């Protein structure tokens, strides 16, 4: 061993260097890297602004829809023959103008008014196309939203004005909104041209009277065939209403909120 001391010393030096890269060291470096990436991701995504969160979510949805449709060759659009009628065109113009004015107004109250007009136009469009139950739901939802938001605005110490965003932010918002609109439109056009299996629909049509005792098939589905699902939705709405009432109800002076 004495004669091989030089080689042994060199080998020990190599082992000493390798000992620094032990499994424990590699694991600690891996954890440190994960923490660095998490900190970087948090600084980008967790801005504390609801608008940024919605922007990221909507952009991700649009990107997933476009990529999935393109890779799976799912977009098969066959535009129907246009049948021009004055009433749908009038309602479409109403919806379009309301949407434009909702964006351009300078106060939240005016924007809320035009947003309500937008929802009413959508409800009338449902009604014209033979969906009165959906139209009624749309009207109720729009009415509740307008009332709740107006109450909330008027309980603020000062009625706020809409803050003008920078051009860069407006451009990003416009791009994401257009992307979402195009993605959903392409998806709906593709879905409406698929061959559907009528078995489920025929089942509800045949059994709505005998099993659910209702001639309105939509109502029979909501309150009988999928009653538990509807009950869950009602509970969610009722719970949200109680929370909103707790926020908006008047408080006695001297008590902290």
UniProtKB/TrEMBL annotation:
Compartment(s) of residence:
Cell membrane
Boundaries of each MrpA C-terminal/MbhE domain copy? 173-252
Query: Does Transport count among this protein's keywords?
Result: yes
Name used for this protein in its record: Uncharacterized protein
Any Gene Ontology CC annotation:
plasma membrane
Taxonomy of the source species: Bacteria, Pseudomonadati, Pseudomonadota, Gammaproteobacteria, Legionellales
Q: Which domain of life is it from?
A: Bacteria
Q: Where is the MrpA C-terminal/MbhD domain?
A: 95-157
Which species? Legionella antarctica
Q: Which InterPro entries match?
A: CPA3_Na-H_Antiporter_A (IPR050616), MrpA_C/MbhD (IPR025383), MrpA_C/MbhE (IPR046806)
Cross-referenced Pfam families: MbhD, MbhE
Q: How does it sit in the membrane?
A: Multi-pass membrane protein
């Amino acid at each position: 061993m004495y004669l091989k001391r030089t080689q042994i010393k060199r080998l020990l030096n190599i082992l000493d260097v390798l000992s620094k890269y032990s499994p424990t060291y590699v694991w600690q470096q891996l954890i440190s890297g994960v923490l660095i990436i998490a900190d970087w991701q948090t600084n980008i995504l967790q801005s504390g602004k609801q608008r940024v969160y919605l922007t990221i979510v909507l952009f991700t949805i649009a990107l997933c829809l476009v990529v999935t449709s393109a890779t799976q060759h799912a977009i098969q659009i066959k535009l129907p023959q246009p049948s021009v009628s004055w009433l749908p065109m009038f309602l479409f113009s109403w919806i379009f103008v309301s949407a434009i004015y909702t964006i351009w107004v300078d106060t939240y109250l005016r924007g809320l008014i035009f947003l309500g007009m937008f929802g009413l136009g959508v409800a009338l469009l449902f009604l014209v196309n033979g969906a009165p139950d959906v139209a009624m739901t749309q009207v109720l939802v729009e009415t509740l939203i307008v009332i709740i938001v107006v109450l909330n605005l008027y309980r603020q110490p000062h009625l706020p004005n809409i803050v003008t965003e920078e051009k860069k932010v407006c451009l990003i918002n416009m791009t994401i909104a257009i992307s979402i609109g195009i993605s959903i439109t392409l998806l709906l056009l593709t879905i409406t041209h698929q061959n559907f299996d009528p078995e489920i629909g025929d089942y509800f049509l045949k059994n709505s009277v005998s099993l659910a005792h209702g001639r309105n098939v939509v109502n029979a589905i909501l309150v009988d065939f999928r009653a538990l699902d509807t009950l869950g939705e009602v509970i969610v709405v009722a719970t949200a209403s109680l929370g909103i009432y707790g926020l908006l109800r008047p408080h006695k002076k001297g008590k902290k909120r």
